[in-house]
């Protein structure tokens, strides 16, 4: 069976959920081989990758890879493609990995598909395009398919693989080392789950009314162990930080449950959340377009509905 290379996403040595999703997908296509780049590799990381089906774990954690941005990773993947002739290369559809995918595609003269939400037999990929308005099926017809898959599009299944570790030494070109990481700043992170990985997301929009009133959204999120998101209207108004914006120009989320409060449901917002399994909308306007998409809707003032909801959730705990 052909190898499927899976570029590992990790934060401080912790394998991100999207990588487990990619390994799950890869298992349906061939033999998954995880590719670890950068610092933080550990036996625990290897075990986690193996638990989710990685037959091999290629490790490239030299300073040449760890201290530079995307270009060395593209060179590494090009070398692995040349050495292993995989059936496909899977990466997460994150900003960084998509850039790596594009650079790799140029290097190995292959086609690349982005924003993929599923892959079927024969490497037929389902892509969500035009801001999520249309789903199409596409196939790479040239070279080794490079596929960038959206986080949260695939349910994770743990099936053990051998997880055989293989160190990869690579001489990175000077050109690829032109951009060097000079400082790392730790992103402020509270106790809430990471937005793109959360299984429940509570988002607030212009209807929330003010930065102060976002505390009501946070309280609802905390009562559910959820992440907080926001519409662009709310982030542009400075009510909530931009890193929490959901939508076409923000983050894409695909949780089990998405609660949209005071959000009208503009196409650009939908693009970032419409694949959520269950959508609940709270909006005072019964004609708000979000209700066309919602599985459950509450017509009412969020300032009255949300506190009652928090109370009911507390009672059921
Ligand atoms: C190129 C481009 C990219 C964009 N990218 C994004 C993106 O990534 N993400 C994004 O979100 N938007 C994006 N937008 C903006 C998008 O078009 C909308 O303007 C935006 O999503 C509106 O945000 P909203 O729903 O919070 O505000 P509004 O559209 O103003 O809706 C507010 C809603 O709150 C309801 N409401 C008001 N008060 C209450 C209350 N007390 N209780 C209950 N409900 C109440 C109203 O009935 C209304 O439905 C983009 C736009 C463009 C042009």
Return the CATH class of the largest domain: Alpha Beta
**How many DSSP E strands?**
16
- Please summarize the sheet with the most strands: 9 strands, mixed
Tally of individual helices: 10
**Bound small-molecule species:** flavin-adenine dinucleotide
Instruction: Report, as a whole number of angstroms, the end-to-end distance.
Output: 48 Å
General description of the model:
The protein is α/β, with parallel strands linked by helices. The protein has two domains: 3-177, HUPs (Rossmann fold, 3-Layer(aba) Sandwich), CATH 3.40.50.620; 195-315, Rossmann fold (3-Layer(aba) Sandwich), CATH 3.40.50.1220. The protein is 29% helix and 25% strand. The strands form three sheets. A nine-stranded mixed beta sheet has the order 9-8-7-10-6-1-4-5-11, with helices on both faces. The chain has a five-stranded parallel beta sheet with strand order 13-12-14-15-16. Strands 2-3 form a two-stranded antiparallel sheet. Strand 8 (124-129) and strand 9 form a beta hairpin. Helix 4 crosses helix 5 (95-108) and helix 6 (214-224) packs parallel to helix 10. The model has no long low-confidence stretch (mean pLDDT 94). It binds flavin-adenine dinucleotide. Flavin-adenine dinucleotide binds at residues 205-207, 231-234, 245-250, 262-264, 266, 268-269, 272, 282-285, 288, 301-303.
């Amino acid at each position: 069976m052909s190898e499927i290379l899976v570029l590992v996403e990790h934060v401080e040595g912790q394998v991100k959920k999207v990588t487990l999703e990619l390994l799950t997908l890869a298992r349906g296509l061939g033999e998954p081989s995880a590719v670890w780049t950068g610092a933080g590799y550990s036996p625990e990381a290897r075990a986690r990758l193996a638990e989710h089906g990685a037959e091999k774990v290629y490790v490239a954690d030299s300073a040449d890879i760890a201290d530079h941005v995307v270009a060395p990773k593209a060179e590494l993947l090009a070398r692995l493609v040349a050495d292993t002739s995989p059936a496909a290369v899977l990466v997460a559809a994150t900003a960084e990995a998509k850039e790596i995918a594009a650079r790799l595609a140029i290097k190995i003269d292959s086609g690349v598909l982005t924003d993929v939400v599923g892959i079927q037999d024969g490497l037929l990929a389902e892509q969500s395009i035009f801001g999520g308005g249309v789903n199409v099926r596409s196939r790479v017809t040239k070279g080794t398919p490079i596929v960038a898959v959206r986080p949260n599009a695939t349910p994770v299944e743990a099936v053990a693989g051998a997880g055989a570790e293989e160190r990869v030494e690579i001489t990175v070109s000077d050109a690829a080392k032109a951009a060097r990481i000079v400082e790392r700043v730790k992103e402020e992170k509270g106790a809430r789950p990471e937005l793109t990985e959360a299984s429940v997301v509570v988002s607030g929009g212009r209807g929330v009314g003010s930065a102060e009133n976002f505390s009501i959204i946070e309280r609802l999120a905390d009562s559910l162990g959820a992440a907080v998101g926001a519409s662009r209207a709310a982030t542009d108004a400075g009510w909530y930080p931009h890193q929490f914006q959901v939508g076409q120009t923000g983050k894409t989320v695909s949780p089990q449950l998405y609660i949209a409060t005071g959000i009208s449901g503009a196409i650009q917002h939908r693009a970032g959340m419409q694949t959520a399994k269950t959508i609940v909308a709270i909006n005072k306007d019964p004609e708000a377009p979000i209700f066309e998409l919602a599985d459950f809707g509450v017509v009412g003032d969020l300032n009255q509905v949300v506190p009652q909801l928090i109370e009911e959730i507390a009672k059921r705990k």
